[in-house]
Every structure is written in C-alpha cells, then in structure tokens.
C-alpha cells in the first residue's frame, strides 16, 4: 500500500450520513478528507456544525456550487445529499473519465461542474439516486425523470456481502437504503437456496429517528417522537420497491413479479433498525435449514454474525458499528420462521457500508476504519 | 345512584397496574379506596411508594397476609398481583357468597383468608389468573396447576367491548392481557364477519417497558433498554395462546385449531402498545370492507376510534387514556390488509379496562373516571 | 354558579401550550371552547393537528386574521402565541370595554380587530407579552417597543399563589414564564420573611423540550437532544430578568437592584422543570426555618406541596399536573440551603396556571379541571 | 516498543465500567485481555453478558475466588468492582513485589490471593478504594475501615492531566470518580492560579444512568427514570469529599478546610456528566482571565478542549470518548463566572481515563486506543 493517502470528498457533510462518514473516515489510516460541502452551512467549520468534530483538522464546509472541481485533487467522492440533487454532479464527475457511454450523454447543465477534473474519481453514493435499475420505477418513486440515466447502467448496487467482485471494479457504487440493508441481508441467501416462498414475505421494521435525516420536519421534533411509536409509509415507502428489486434477483424473477409486505415503524431512539421478517418455508424445509444456510453463508463475513439458536439481536448491540446481527426462530405456525436482523442505520445502513465499499474498491482490508465495538450502554 | 360510594380494595398496589388504578380511582366520583396491599412495601404510605400520590388521602399499604378480611367492608376488589399469587385469595373472597359451585370446592388453604367476609364482593382481576379457559393450557403456560379451577368457570373474560352483558352480571372479571387487548380488538369483528382468513394472521407488537412491571430485572434497567429495540418471547410469549383463545371464539373454532404468529418487541418508552397486524382478506373482500366493518362495529363505542383512511395511530396519542385507535391500510400485496392499533398498556391494557369493567358491573356510565385526554407531548 | 358555561377562545391552539389548554379545558365542567385559532394550520381540525383530540367536539382552527370578533360571543380569551404577536389584538379586545386608560391609547392598527365586540372579555395571556412591568426592559429583552403599553399597567402577573386578590378582579392576567414559576415559588416567601440573602441566589434549572414549543428548529429535533444534556442561554435567558423583577418585589427592592444567577439546561424529556436553588441564609437562620416557613406558607395551597425533610421532588411526579413539589436540604457549607422545586412546564408552568387563574377570575373552585394525578410511569 | 503485548486482567468485567474497558482495550494495539472476572456471571462468555462482544475472542468470565493468581501471567490489572471488595486482592497482588511497606503489612486474609505471582503487576483501580487519602475520611464515607491502608500511601490519584509524572512511576493508580473528573478539571488550574475564591464554589452536575452501574435497584429501572429528572444525594454524595480533597490541594489547603456545594442530578440518558460550576472571581479578575488560564493550561492536552467564548458543551458531543469539553460564561452578577464541563462518565469518567493512565504507565502515546470520535447523533 502506498504511503500516499486517498483524497476524499464528502458532498452533503452537514447531514447525518455525512457526519457519520466524517466520524469514520477521520480515523481511517489511508484517507484524507480534503473537501466537505454543505449548502445550508457553507462557510462554517465542521466544528460549528457538529461540535464533536471541533478538535479535528478538517476543511470548512463550502457550497457545492462553489467547488472548483478543476482545482481539487480527488480519488473518491462520497455523496450524502438528498435524492435527485447530485445526479448531474456525479455525471459531471465522470465526464472524460473514459466512460464513453457517459461522455456521449453529458448534457449542457453538467458543464458547470466538470471543466477539467484532474483525474478519474470513484463515486460512492449514499442517496437513492442510483439504486433503482429501472428508469420508470425511479421516476415513479422519486417524482422526477432521472437526470443521469446513463449512470444507472454502470452503478453497482453496493450491498457489499453480495457484490464484492462488481464493487472492486466499479466506478460508481450505489449504497443500499437503510431498510433494504437490514431486510435483504438474510433473505437473499434463503431465496437463493430456495428455502422460503418468495410470495409470502412480510417485513416489519422499526427504525431510529436519524433515518429521517437532519431535516426540519415537525414529525422529527423530540417532543413529537419521544414517548411513543407509530407505523408510517405503510405499503408506500420507497424502500419497498428497492427491497423487491433485490429480492427478485435472488429469487430469479423480474422485479415486477416480486411483491413483499413492508411496514416501517419509528421508535424513540437515534439509531438502529430492527427488522422482523415473517417467512413461509418451502415444503420439507425446517428452521434448522434456515439457521444452517445463514450460518454457512455468513460464517466468513467480517460484519455479519448469525446468533445461535435462541438468541435475538438488539439494535443497541450494533450501535455505531457496521455489524449485522441475525437471529432465527420457529414460528408458532408450522412451516414458518421468523428472522430478526439488527443494524445501525447510519453505519451499515449508510456511511459504514459506504466505507466498507470504499475499502473493497481500493483494495484495503474491509474492516479498515470499521473495526469498532458498539457503545453500549 | 346512591350517595354511598363503593368501597374498593387494590391488592398489589405497589406495582404499576396498582398505581395506575390508584391514579384513576382516586378521581372516580363513586369510589372510595379503603384497602391497599403491597407486600414489599407493607407499612409504607402510597406517597412513599409513589411520590405523585403524596397529596392524596389513601390508606397505607399492608401485607396481604395481614388483611383482616372479616373486618373490611368491601364492594369491589381489584387484583394487580403476579399471576398465581391471588387465586386462593380470590377463591376465599367468594366463600359463602352464594356461589354454590365455589363453596363446594373451597379447600383448606383458603380458610386463612376468608373467615367472615361481611358481604359478597365483586372481583376484578388484572393478572393472568382467570383469563385462560382451559386448565391444562393454564398449567402449561404458567407452570403450575390452577389453584382455583372452579373460578375459571365463573370468570368472565373482560374485553369490555365484546362482553358487556356478561360483565354486568359477573362476580369475577378477568381483564385481558395488554397484548391481547390491542391485538384482538380489531380482529374479532373481522373474524366474526368472515372478512379475513383465520389461518393467516400475523401480529407484530411493540410495547413500552411498563409492560414488564416494577420487578428488578437487569433487562428492565434504563441503561439496558434505552437507545434501542428488540424482539422477545418470539412464538413463546404467554399472550399468544390467550390471543388464540379469543380469536378462536370469534372464528367459531376450538382454541387448539387456532394458531397465530405473535411477536412482541420492546421499545424505549414507558407506555403504549402498537400492534401491526397482517391479514389475508377472504376472497372478494376489500380493504374498504374492513374499514366499513370496523367503523360500523365501533361507531358507538366510547373508547374505540377507527381512524379515517390514510391515518395511522401513534401510541403517544393514547398515553394515559383508555382509548383504542385503529388504522387500516391496504398491503402492497393484493388481497391483504394491515391493521394497526394503539393502546396504553397500563390503561386500556390493564387498569383502565379494569375500571371500565367496574363501571359496567356497578351500572355507572362507562366513561366515569376515564374521560381523560392523552398527555401529549 | 349559573348553568351557562363560559365561552372560551384559545388563540394559538396549534402550539403546545394551546394543546395543553385544550386537554384541560375540554374536561372543565363550566367551559365551552368556542374558538380556536392557529395560523399555520388554519382550516384543519384539532384532530388533524393533534390526533389525540380526534374524538372531541371542537371548532376547527382558523387564522387569527379571519376571526370576526364582532360575531363571536366570548367570556374569556387565552393567548398562547409567540410574544409580540397578540399585543395589539389583546388591546383591541379591550377597546370600549370601559377601560378609559385603554380607550385613550387605542391606536389605528388595532381597529382591524375590534369593531364591535359584544361584551367585555377577560384575557389570560400565556406569552411573555405582559409579564414585564418596565417598558424599556421589555423592549430590551424582546427586541421591540411594546405595542400595547397601556395594558402593561392593568395586567396582573399571575403567579396565582401570590396574586389571588388581584387576579379576582383582573381583566388581563399575564401568566408567568415556566422557569419563573418554578424558580420564584419557594423564594418569594423566603425573601418576604427575610430568611435568605437576596444578593446570593443561584438558580440552576433543567427543562424538558416542550419548553421550546413546536417550532422547527434544528436544536429541537429528537436526534439533537436525546441522549444528552446541555446548558443554554447562560446569563442571557429572558426569564432571568423576569425572575429578578418578581424576587425584587418580594425583597422590597427595585428590579434594577436585584441580580440573580440563572442557568437553564435542556434534558431529553418532554415535560418538567426541576429548579435547584442555592441560597445563603440570613445570620442565625437555619434550614429548619426555611422548612417551617415554606410549610407554613403553602400548607393550604391546593397545588403546592412541601416535601418532608429528606425527600426531593422528581419532575416525573408532577407530569401532566398543576402541582408544585418543593424539597429542602442543608448544604455542605454552613449557613446555606438548597431548595429544589419540580413543576410541569406546560401545566403549572403555562396552561394549567392559566386555567387556575381563570378559575380564580370567574369564582370557580381553584382545582376545577385541574384535579389530576401525574401519569407515572 | 516491544512486539510483546501487555497482558491485562479486568476484575469486574460484567459491570459497565468493565464492559467499557473491554470495548476500548479490545482495539488497543498493545494489549491482550487474558483474564476477566465477574462473580455474578461466572462461567458465561462476554458475549452472553454483553452480546455486542459476541464476535470478539475473549476469555470467559470466572469468579474472582477461582483465579489461580500463580498461574496467570499479567502485566496490568484493572479493577472495576464495587468499593471495598478488592482492597485485599490488590494488596495481595503487591505482595513480594518489592514494596517493603506493603510486604510488612500483608495480613493473613490476603494469602489466598497471592501465593506466587509470577512478576510484579501494575494495578489501575476504577473503584473508590484508593482515592481518599485520609483513612478516617474513607471509613466515614464508605462505612468500613480500609482493608489495605498501606496501599493508600502508594496509590496515585489518577486525574491524568494533573498527575502524569507520578502516574508514570506508579504501581497503583486510583482513577478519580466520574463527578470529580468533570468537576475538578477546570477548577484546579483556576485555584492554582488564584483566579477564584475557594470558599464560594457551587458544583451542580447532571449525570446519565450508567453512573449507577448495572445493579438492580428500583430507581434504575427504565420506567422510573425516563421522562424526568431529579436531584439526589444532595450534600451527602461521596464524591463531594473527594472533590474537596483534590480542590484543597489545588488551593494549597488542608482537605478539612475546603467545603464546596455539590448537587448531583440524574437525567434520562445513558452516559454523560454535565457539570455547571458557579465561581466567584478574585478581586480584579475577569472572565477573560478564566478563559485565558484554561486555554493556556489545556492547549496541549490531547483530550481536553476549551471552547471559544460563547460556546457551551453538550454531553452528547463527548459520548463514547475520553474527551473533556469546557465552556466559560460571565454570570449576570458581576465578578462571577459559570464554567460548564462535559464528559462521558464511563469513558473519561472511568474506563477511558483508566486506559489513558495505562498508556502513561507503560510509555504508550496517551491517545492509543482512545482516538475515538463521539457517536452523535
């Protein structure tokens, strides 16, 4: 490994996924953070925006429109901005980087951003921008035509455990949504192994409030969400189709032929997603088969741990880590199993997985910068 | 209504259900609290045990074994003690009260408690002691033979909305468990109407920590349960069979032929149960049918409110109240619906419903002492 | 008491103090809520804005500018709006009501609101608008000249326990701030009795997040305030001068000669203010004198309870109530005492006290509608 | 630095300070954890006791009486047990280690533990056992004669920033209490510099619930402490005299001549202590002098950060870290200042500082294993 460190930018560093990435990257031995953007807080230091970083040596936040891309020497760009806001910028970053497909499609409006990028960069996107394969589905879910459809073809969906080879060579990685990360991790191997019925999957998830980001919505006020729980976005949450897209691949189906029940809930906690999944076993299959399958699949994975029979994960046991805990139980109803997974939505569910993907892309050990134990209690 | 107030005892007043009942009864215009027991805190005033009651005029706590039943003039006894601990006492209370069935079955060990009760009392039990019809099922679930099997026959299962007539004449009411209250309220009418498939019911519930009572268990420490969520008692929680027993009746089946999936979760909040139920509609039935059925059924109920299409309940909106909120949504998968209910586990899920039942038993307006709005935020 | 109920308006009903007042007034036997304003949510029902009220029969919210004052028959108006926004409106309400002083001072800009009010109304203001006696101090603290200076003279500062006689005859009551309510309750009698040194008072307070209202500020997001505490507004919080003004009166001084140390903190809880006050005893006085003084002063007060020696109040024990708990301890340093008070900032600290004042103004028993026990746990 | 790692034991690893130390030490590049004791959970793996550690390679917990000290090769022993329980054990560990003073004083009851320790070890104690210099004061505070009074003389009070030289050569370091760490950090330099009056110090602190450890007390249940705050141990908390002892040294006084006001509060959060200190400036001194003094003193400290004028620390900004944040403000009253510090009670307030001290004792860079950013939100 050369002594020269990777030069990294974080677009959208004033949001929670951006801040989480700063937390992790600032301790990564092979990365220097050289650019931070944050429109609402442009001009402020990260210590102003997140006082916990006041002791770190970090660049000040600048507005994304003020970045002089030609003058910045970058190896990797992390995007942590709201969906739809950086598609053109990302497309611009790829201009003249050797992607003929992209070059041909560059539109005028990207020119502002591209000028003369010094060298090709790799982009790791934490938004929903490049997760959905199908342009129409994207437009339906996110309310606008995709601004960089050519990139949809080259983007790799970065659930690391199931896409390492593709990630290694990818120029653009789309990190999965937080709910899909927790929901699909255990289901993909079970569908691939034919252990469960793809038509009878119910995913019930409970998330912490950081999942809503730092946006000023009444529903995110302390006073509104402490002391209780509720379900939201029932049958309409955008992560439903994303989950279906990934599970369809595992089941060897078209996305349109995959429908799962998905109900997110909000609980009064900062971080964590607990996913309780109800599945119907294929004829003759047992809960032990499920346990064996998942243990076998994840045995060598650095971040995934299948709990022994009888144990169930708590989100608090993965808080601040990139870990995934999986517990399995037999249902009261014969032929059915219940699978529970716990992740930290900001870490494995977003910025941690982004860093894990960076490690894969640049040939570092996958745990570099992510070898962290949960802060509990 | 006579001017003489009912004389009420609360057995187990140092626990949370006992305290909740004190909160409610102390404002009931037709009740005097004349006896409070609490073994661990015998000798203390309620103000010592619960400082919020320091300004009320209440009897001190005494040990249950120190109650001189012959000398206490009582109309109604509420039991809020751990399951199995008051069966004999309750049986004793009924001795020589005219229940031939009971009289015949009185065993020696009850004599300590009975002596000469002044007059027949009505008993409202908030424990699990008299909820399970079948003695074997009770023994399996609670780990001991029932100590007062004769009373199982006369006990009325007190989900008020579905048992008013029986409660009116009952001498012993077994208040439903907190999870069963939230879980069965909406399902009973749907099963009765044949709108849903009884073999495909999945009940996913999230509870606050008061559900665990005031017992000193590591898992109930603030430090252990704040900042995260987890599932527990998957497929083994005692409320599962209780739910099945009640749903079986609604479906016109034997209990043994009714199996439902039931997964409780614990969230970092004091009160509240949110129940998310996944159901399969009967052929040709729609989500509108579900909405209509529940609106029709609960329209005149003082405590149950079916939310308009598109709204979903929060537990915080019923905090401290006897209310039940019900929301209904179509699933992504055709022919399926998702029903969400919110209750306060200590109020409608226990002490509030106990008081509601008392109102029915003694002919008071059902909202007396329960006409309370949620404390939110 | 006549059978006709008071007709009440709540201006600013979509905020938390407004909602708290709806919670309380909706159970008051002698009040009908006939008008609710809420500019941001005009047109919505209270059930839309606060789902817990969905079962109540309440008027919809309207914009304050859309109120046709001439057509509304009102007895009492509660103002729960941000400071400075209702001074003119309140002045308008008093126009032609017989207050010569006010009439003379009516300015043009109030005419919009006054037209022909049917009859004199009484106004209970929960904002800071009429709390500060001195116009210059008000202007300094709140950043603008007072819009209704004439009313400052007729407004009664409504810390009920110390102003009953004035409140009885008042047309305009300015309810104290939440911090001043908790901070001055115990200090006033001690200063009046000469038991403590007015120059050595340190008030350290911890508040819940509802104190910040329902406004969309980053600092009020769940994610920003859960899991930690901090101090804010040290030496600059507007309630500091308000506290000084009231303590000065108790000490027989001019406001300008009274300076106290006041440090508010924010804790991750919805409601409650705990005030820890450090005082120096006058020569020869003891902590027992403090205990005796406060017990004597508050013995007959319906909402204030002085705890016995050795007990200390928790905010959770007053949650949702109008109660004030006071605990007293000797300091490690001789000649000094520590006094701790607990209130619910939304109830006794705002809407509860407003209702208490209404009861005084209209001759009801002071506990009417406020005879509530804390919801704990 | 040799390649051989330090061999470390943690006595009391099932408690929260023990677990926090495992979290930190498991990432320390120069330490192997070779022994973990935990009486209540003897025989269990750390993954059973703290599921977050299920993926680590750690020794199982054993009962302290089952440790075969002669057979364990250890370099450093951390004690995280309740006060009074390890004094004899620690004394045993020092037997025949060359401390004549200790050797002479070894009593029979220590022989169980000592036998033939392979080599001298260094001991870092996180309990209160060796913090108090004066044997009588210890006995008064902790309710028993000290069991190893000889060690009191050799123990170094380990507030690292003020005792580095002594810690370097120490065999036994007594880590400060959590409250004293937060309370004295800023006061010591100010007293040393004569900037504040030692007779007028008021320390008001708010702690998270982990400060109470993992013990099963009703007052530590989630249900008892969520949703509110309270003060406790006013004027009687054992950390008061510990604070006075350390401040006395800084002020050049005898402990008995130093009295400070100290009031701890409990807030519904897991971690963190916020200390708000009220001080009187020496004649002619200003708040700027305070700011300058503290900035100068802590400028080169790796873990202490003095915030610029106008900023105030939040406990959440140090969560999980060894950092200390200090903010300074002028009081409303002239000649007085308010100083606020934030620490994580489990990290800098206990296990983090223990590790910091280990780094000093063994010549490692002080930040080794402690270069962590806060998990926020």
Structure commentary:
- Four copies of one chain form a homotetramer.
- With 377 residues, chain A is of the alpha/beta class.
- Chain A has two domains: 6-154, Rossmann fold (3-Layer(aba) Sandwich), CATH 3.40.50; 179-345, Dihydrodipicolinate Reductase, domain 2 (2-Layer Sandwich).
- Chain A has helices at residues 16-25, 46-49, 87-94, 100-105, 111-114, 135-142, 149-154, 164-169, 178-192, 222-225, 239-251, 287-298, 347-361, and strands at residues 6-11, 31-37, 61-62, 76-79, 122-125, 156-157, 172-174, 202-207, 230-231, 261-266, 273-280, 304-306, 324-330, 336-343.
- In chain A, the strands form two sheets. The first copy, chain A, has a seven-stranded parallel beta sheet with strand order 3-2-1-4-5-7-6.
- In chain A, strand 13 and strand 14 (336-343) form a beta hairpin.
- In chain A, helix 1 (16-25) packs across helix 13 and helix 9 (178-192) packs parallel to helix 11.
- The radius of gyration of chain A is 20 Å and the shape is globular.
- Residues 97-116 of chain A have low confidence and may be disordered.
């Amino acid at each position: 490994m050369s002594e020269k460190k990777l030069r990294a930018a974080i677009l959208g560093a004033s949001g929670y996924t951006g801040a989480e990435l700063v937390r992790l990257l600032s301790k990564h031995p092979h990365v220097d953070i050289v650019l931070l953007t944050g429109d609402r807080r442009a001009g402020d230091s990260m210590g102003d925006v997140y006082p916990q970083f006041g002791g770190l040596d970090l660049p000040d936040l600048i507005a994304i429109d003020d970045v002089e891309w030609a003058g910045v020497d970058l190896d990797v760009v992390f995007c942590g901005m709201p969906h739809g806001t950086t598609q053109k910028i990302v497309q611009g970053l790829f201009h003249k980087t050797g992607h003929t497909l992209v070059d041909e499609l560059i539109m005028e409006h990207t020119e502002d951003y591209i000028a003369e990028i010094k060298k090709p960069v790799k982009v790791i996107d934490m938004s929903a921008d490049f997760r959905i394969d199908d342009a129409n589905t994207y437009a339906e879910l996110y309310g606008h035509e995709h601004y960089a459809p050519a990139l949809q073809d080259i983007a790799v969906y970065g659930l690391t455990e199931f896409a390492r080879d593709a990630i290694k060579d990818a120029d653009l990685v789309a990190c999965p949504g937080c709910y899909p990360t927790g929901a699909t991790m255990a289901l993909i191997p079970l569908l691939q192994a034919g252990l469960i019925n793809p038509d009878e999957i119910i995913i019930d998830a409970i998330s912490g409030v950081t999942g809503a980001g730092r946006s000023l919505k009444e529903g995110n006020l302390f006073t509104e969400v402490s002391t209780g729980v509720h379900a939201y976005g029932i049958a309409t949450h955008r992560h439903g189709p994303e989950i279906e897209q990934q599970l369809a691949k595992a089941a060897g189906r078209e996305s349109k032929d995959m429908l799962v029940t998905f109900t997110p809930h909000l609980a009064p906690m900062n971080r964590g997603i607990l996913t309780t999944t109800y599945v119907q076993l294929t004829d003759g299959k047992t809960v032990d088969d499920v346990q064996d399958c998942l243990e076998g699949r994840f045995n060598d994975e650095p971040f995934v741990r299948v709990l022994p029979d009888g144990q169930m994960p708590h989100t608090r046991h993965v808080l601040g880590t990139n870990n995934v805990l999986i517990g399995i139980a037999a249902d009261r109803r014969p032929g059915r199993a219940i699978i529970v997974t716990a992740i930290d939505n900001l870490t494995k569910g977003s910025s941690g997985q982004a860093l894990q993907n960076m490690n894969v892309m640049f040939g570092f050990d996958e745990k570099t910068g992510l070898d962290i134990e949960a802060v509990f209690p």
